[in-house]
Amino acid sequence: MLNKYPLWKTLMVAMIVALGALYATPNLYGESPAVQVSGLRGVEADAATLDSVKAHLEESKLSYDSIALEKGQILTRFNNTEEQLKARDVLDDKLGKKFSVALNLTPNTPDWLAAIGGSPMKLGLDLSGGVSFLMEVNMKEAINKAKVGMVSDFRGDLRNEKIRYRSVKEANNSVVVVFRKIEDLEAGQSLLKKRYRDLLLSTDDDTLTLTAKMTEQKLKEIREYALQQNITIIRNRVNELGVAEPLVQRQGKKHIVIELPGVQDTAKAKEILNATATIEFRLVDTEGDLSNAINGRVPANSILLTDKDGRPSLLKKRVMLTGDHITDAKSGFDEYSRPQVNISLDSAGGSKMSSGTKSNIGKPMATVFIEYKATDKKDAEGNIIFEKNQEIISIATIQSRLGKTFRITGAGSAAEAHNLALLLRAGALIAPITIVEERTVGPTLGAENVKLGFEAILMGFGLVFIFMMIYYRAFGVVANLALGANLVLIVGVMSMIPGATLTLPGMAGIVLTVGMAVDANVLIFERIREEMREGKTIQQSIHQGYEAAFSTIIDANITTLIAALILFAIGTGPVKGFAVTLSIGIITSMFTSVVASRTVVNAVWGGKRLDKLSI
């Protein structure tokens, strides 16, 4: 029988639309202002912290809608932003330095809906607001780090060529090498001049010294490299956080702008982005006197460091390997269920670790965690002064020669091991950075954009609805139902996809999709009219109208979809947001305009003897 779907097919179409409507529902519940308390450096909030938060809020006579401890974090919802801001200030003052207190907007999705994965669409910074950071790169530390690298490279090159020297030290923007003999000085100058063409070399035969000075061009390259590498590493860290539609770009000579739309954990974002963490591997000085070192008499070639429990150890100054050679790091558990971090090195790092451990089997080696923290002080050039914190993670005996892959234990809790692996995997920053400006994009701009965007969508839908009902009568109602289903499916799909984010350009993509969806129905309806004018029966006209128009609709939508996919692949920011909604809209519009609308037409008019058709 013409124009008659089997029951299973009708139910399947209805189920798809209903599923889309179900997952679009969370967008109707809105969001509540909230304050989130998160631990720093892997510390997790517990029941005692929850009681403390409640006590501080009650003491300040601040009422809240709900409070919950979830996944080591405390989330407190409030009825208005005024209470939220007051609570943030109170908790930030009372909880000390172990916890970070951040503002959030949390969805009011019912528990039953959240249990099946329902959540509202993520909105971009232009719609929902979010956090914008202006970060400053410490260029002085970048140059210092480059000098340390030069000292290490000079020592290695001279040692490999068996050229004897007394010392290799840093001095201003240069490195000074003191040799033992004039022959060594000449050989060293020849070697270093050949390998480091971007340095200015000068010698003093009387003192047997060679000075390698960085040129202005070299200093400029170091600063540029530090900025670009930090941008790349921060992008990696943002990706680790799972933030959709982020913006990371340079501003001027030493600043980076980061925009994180709709972040749900601003505390963790600040901790991860601002962290300048890496690790170093050093041999333990077993020959030095630890008690003398504790009393201030540290040997010239050693340093005194402590672990997180405050236990001191004497370590060699010479670094076996730095975190710059780490290519991958994953947290896990060892055979005794203790947290560990599995590390992979690049080829150069593997060679250094192999040669460093080959002659030290049976000796203890320390893993040192290094972190730079910004202080309130600035140097003469206006750069922020950073405080270098070093902490021993673990000390283990070298059992065998290590290579490109190995593991470290003693990182603390599973959360601390995970956090350390994340930082090492994303990359150690070339130079310390600090947040010099943190700007929360308020809801006013976002609310206005959302309001205007939805007004544009509703206006577009309304005008199309009216036109279709007047021009195509009963079939116009079918087209309008298909349009409504299309909008519901777009919202539902956007809500289900974890990385999909609705931006203002994305709203423009939805409006464009409305017009394209109507085009498909117009093609079908006009073809039905044409078939009826040629004298075919109504059922034959409906059947032929859908069949003949299908290939045209597919061709037109596929070409547009290809263009949208290209925009998504090569575009960034707003362009990507537009491409996402356009791509989803094209796919859903083909389903609703052809399949869903024909299901309704078949249910109402299919298989019946009709003398006229309201089209």
From TrEMBL:
Residues 306-431 form the SecDF P1 head subdomain domain. It is a multi-pass membrane protein. One of its GO terms (cellular component) is plasma membrane. Keywords: Cell membrane, Membrane, Protein transport, Translocation, Transmembrane, Transmembrane helix, Transport. Gene3D superfamilies: 3.30.1360.200, 3.30.70.260, 3.30.70.3400, Multidrug efflux transporter AcrB transmembrane domain (1.20.1640.10). The chain crosses the membrane at residues 452-471, 478-497, 503-525, 546-570, 582-605. Forms a complex with SecF. Part of the essential Sec protein translocation apparatus which comprises SecA, SecYEG and auxiliary proteins SecDF-YajC and YidC. This is Protein translocase subunit SecD.
